[in-house]
Amino acid sequence: MTKSGGRDGTERLVVIGGDAAGMSAASQARRLRKPGELEIVAFERGHFTSYSACGIPYWVGGEVSGPDELIARTPEEHRERGIDLRLRTEVTGIDVAGQRVRARAVDTGAESWTPYDRLVIATGARPVRPDLPGVDAPGVHGVQTLDDGQALLDTLARTDGRRAVVVGAGYIGVEMAEALIHRGYEVTVVNRGSEPMATLDPDMGRLVRRAMEGLGITMVSDAEVTELPTGDDGRVRAVRTKDAEYPADLVILGIGVRPETSLARSAGLPVGAHGGLLTDLAMRVRGHRNIWAGGDCVEVLNLVSGQEQYVPLGTHANKHGQVIGTNAGGGYATFPGVVGTAVSKVCDLEIARTGLREKDADRVGLRYEAVTIESTSRAGYYPGASPMTVKMLAERGTGRLLGVQIVGREGAGKRVDIAAVALTARLTVEQMTALDLGYAPPFSPVWDPVLVAARKATAKVRQGQPG
Amino acid sequence: MTKSGGRDGTERLVVIGGDAAGMSAASQARRLRKPGELEIVAFERGHFTSYSACGIPYWVGGEVSGPDELIARTPEEHRERGIDLRLRTEVTGIDVAGQRVRARAVDTGAESWTPYDRLVIATGARPVRPDLPGVDAPGVHGVQTLDDGQALLDTLARTDGRRAVVVGAGYIGVEMAEALIHRGYEVTVVNRGSEPMATLDPDMGRLVRRAMEGLGITMVSDAEVTELPTGDDGRVRAVRTKDAEYPADLVILGIGVRPETSLARSAGLPVGAHGGLLTDLAMRVRGHRNIWAGGDCVEVLNLVSGQEQYVPLGTHANKHGQVIGTNAGGGYATFPGVVGTAVSKVCDLEIARTGLREKDADRVGLRYEAVTIESTSRAGYYPGASPMTVKMLAERGTGRLLGVQIVGREGAGKRVDIAAVALTARLTVEQMTALDLGYAPPFSPVWDPVLVAARKATAKVRQGQPG
After folding, report:
1. Measured between beta carbons, which residues in chain A are less than 8 angstroms from residue B73?
2. Statement: residue A464 has pLDDT above 80
3. Is there a contact between B318 and A446 if contact means CB atoms under 8 Å apart?
4. Domain Pyridine nucleotide-disulphide oxidoreductase dimerisation: where (chains A, B) (predicted)?
């Protein structure tokens, strides 16, 4: 029973979006179903497929030599595997009742309808472009796509600017600030919040701010940008806030992204409070048996808060694609949700978080105890041992782990994985004190910093208990 | 109701053994009970307390400057905290019925009885000294205690030997081989097994052997030592096996340790199949309400195999001490068991394991699927990405994770913690494929190597299933 009109009763899978989620889904479906069984058509409006947007700051910073290195799989490789990939082709409409999509060739403007039996929506995210005077002026750059990265590098090569202002102090803003310091810029980061990395509690974000200031980055907090004034040549020349103006030869917008769901909304598909598509555990769009969605255009269930959340991360997009491709290929897989893990690096500072921050717990009605400890990455006597701060939240009463934040140097960031697994398994902090973690002097003190935090959290939870 | 005859009804806690488990227990009990409530007496036959035996290879190798750095807490510090610590005093008998111990001053030979209300046995381990001709000759060294380390360093300083033979290729043997290479020795490691690091499956141990050979270490496999021939001066001059003789100016015994339980056995306390004391979850010696035991003299429950195991590791000893001290101090804590995690480092090679090896699973009747994958520590395009091999065992049918082994470079070792927590939580490899692990290019490929292994293991488990 095919509606796609495929030859010989072959069904057709249509994928909208040629990046991580979409092409992982296409590839996995292809692994399970031969071209004679399932035709796979993928539409991508840009020039590239399957690239690592997370790598763009390192490309700009010079640690990665070129955009090719960021491409996991080229269009040719996808085509060789039997995926009918149509680049520079934008899907402009989804006809859910008619099971077809309308696509437009970007270069010619020609439009046509393509029927589908199964549909994957992987339209990704679009960067937040604040509605500010000057936001479209030359010299103002986003850093979401490879094209963005190339445009920024072109600007860097062409101009002899000395002063850069980064708007936003999330992980992209922080990474870009470092990349520009490496390129010899004077860098100012203008941040709406009180501390950078709002994915951390402010007491932990403060450690990041100090490290950035130590690099020579000027950090401006609690600042709302009102305008990006331009010069006589039309180029951006400053970033203006309510209180001050910061001269800029270059402005980077690191304000984050929103789910790109205009197409899906127009088709009447369900979106959540954060603007992302809502799916079930098999990554099917809710209420639709033959439409899947994944990657930066969907909301995901946070297993700790019990609520949907928007977490645009390549690692989730790849997992979604794998699950979608398995299901669309006739197999069975689920994506149970996330616990909110993220790591990033600023110079030699490693920053990690998982689970809930204090304000997340407050918002969903969870009462908690919070503790913070200082420890080291290795046995204190072993060369290279470096300080590490671990903050841990545990539910009041039950002692269930709610979240962990870590700021330190080498060896700090990936320790968050211990907490990520513990959150998934709903361990209590007291159960965590007995975890059999790897110990040897080059790897850890005899009590791993995560265990030290768990011990302190356990004591605090027990203190609050009657008897 | 005190039997110790303490002043004013004060109870007395006696601790036998002044290293990690014993002194952690004493310190924790002291935190919970003031000197007026609980008298704490600790006997230690050596000169030192609370030191890191795991650090000795680094001291010999020169990465750590002196023994003081390996001492976590000095005798004076313990005494200041109100612990009556008696160094150079060996306990020679336990009278369980009479609730007292007999102690002998090592220097004077004077003996006396000390009554107790609560007793902690933390007698540690003794190195395996094979019953071989020449084993006690000058030039043959163990590396279990600070005294051993000092004796070895004295030998290294005094003699101008060039050839060292290490007997045994467990983690101590491997670490010592590297330390001696750093000191300019020609090093031969004579190993009874087919590959070094018998804590790994041989296919993973092979990777370690190749790395050691790459350092210039000569690896002799499947070799049984029969004699340590001595020269005219009485010093060791070679290591002889059934098939060959290896000239040696210095011999290191890295054959491992056994639980030191002769005292406990004499007192009629229960020991298990591996020679260690048997305890309950509160670390009480089975059948005894007021005697606890922990550290290198006890067996621990392996939560994966369901059987007792002997795992002499400082990290367990510290946890035992913490649990014992809490209980002996009137609180409540348990030690649920281990999953068998261990990490070590040879030059820049990181070696880790947790859970069961193939032969462990075979022995306890678990059927399994095993997979091995190659991946990298960071995104492939990010500088410093290095190869990593991950082997994973999953139970046939259920897919429950049974074990993980990792051999790689920087960033490989502590990834085993992910598996250690997953084993504790009894996750399946399919559940692991959805783990929300930290991802950013400097930390991991978009699929963490542990996830890649979990995916492959999931596929293999599913393959074996009907339907």
Report:
1. none
2. no
3. yes
4. 344-446
Identify the residue among B351, B421, B427, B465 best suited for mutation to test binding to A, counting A beta carbons within 10 A and taking the highest: B421
B3, B6, B37, B54: the catalytic one is B54
Instruction: Please tell me the distance from the alpha carbon of residue A329 to that of residue A28, in angstroms, as a whole number.
Output: 7
Q: Which residues contact residue A355 at a Cβ distance below 8 angstroms, ignoring those fewer than 6 apart?
A: A304, A339, A340, A393, A401, A402, A403, A404, A419, A420, A423
User: Hey, are the CB atoms on B438 and A63 less than 8 Å from each other?
Assistant: no
How confident is the prediction along chain B (467 residues), in pLDDT tens digits per residue? 455 555 567 999 999 999 999 999 999 999 999 999 999 999 999 888 877 778 888 888 888 888 888 888 888 999 999 999 999 999 999 999 999 999 999 999 999 999 999 999 999 998 888 899 999 999 999 988 888 889 999 998 887 779 999 999 998 899 999 999 988 999 999 999 999 999 999 999 999 999 999 999 999 999 999 999 999 999 999 999 999 999 999 999 988 899 999 999 999 999 999 999 999 999 999 999 999 999 999 999 999 999 999 999 999 999 999 999 999 999 999 999 999 999 999 878 999 999 999 999 999 999 999 999 999 999 888 888 999 999 999 999 999 999 999 999 999 999 999 999 999 999 999 999 999 999 999 999 999 999 999 999 999 999 876 54
Q: How far is A411 from chain B (nearest CA, A)?
A: 8
- Chain B residue closest in CA terms to A338: B436
Q: Of the candidates B52, B379, B455, which has its C-beta nearest A52's C-beta?
A: B379
Sequence-distant (6+) residues with CB within 8 A of A361 are A305, A367, A368, A393, A402, A403
Question: Rounded CA gap, A292 and A277, in Å?
Answer: 10
Q: Which residue of B has its CA nearest to A61?
A: B382
| CATH of segment(s) B349-461 | 3.30.390.30
Instruction: List the single residue in A64, A425, A441 with the smallest CB-CB distance to B421.
Output: A425
Report domain B7-126+258-328's class: alpha beta
pLDDT at A390: 98
CATH 3.50.50.60 in chain A is located at 7-126+258-328, 140-255, 342-462
| Residue in A130, A138, A141 with CA at minimum distance from that of residue A60 | A141
CATH 3.30.390.30 location in chain B: 349-461
Q: Which residues of B touch A320 (CB under 8 A)?
A: none
Reference A143, options A304, A253, A275; nearest CA is: A253
Domain A342-462: assigned CATH number: 3.50.50.60
Q: Which two tokens stand for residue B98?
A: 């009479």
CA dihedral A30, A32, A35, A41 (to 10 degrees): -40
Measuring CA to CA, which residue among A164, A171, A141, A167 is closest to residue A255?
Answer: A167
Residues of A forming the active site? 54
Name the CATH superfamily, with its identifier, for domain B140-255: FAD/NAD(P)-binding domain (3.50.50.60)
Which residues of chain B form CATH 3.50.50.60? 7-126+258-328, 140-255
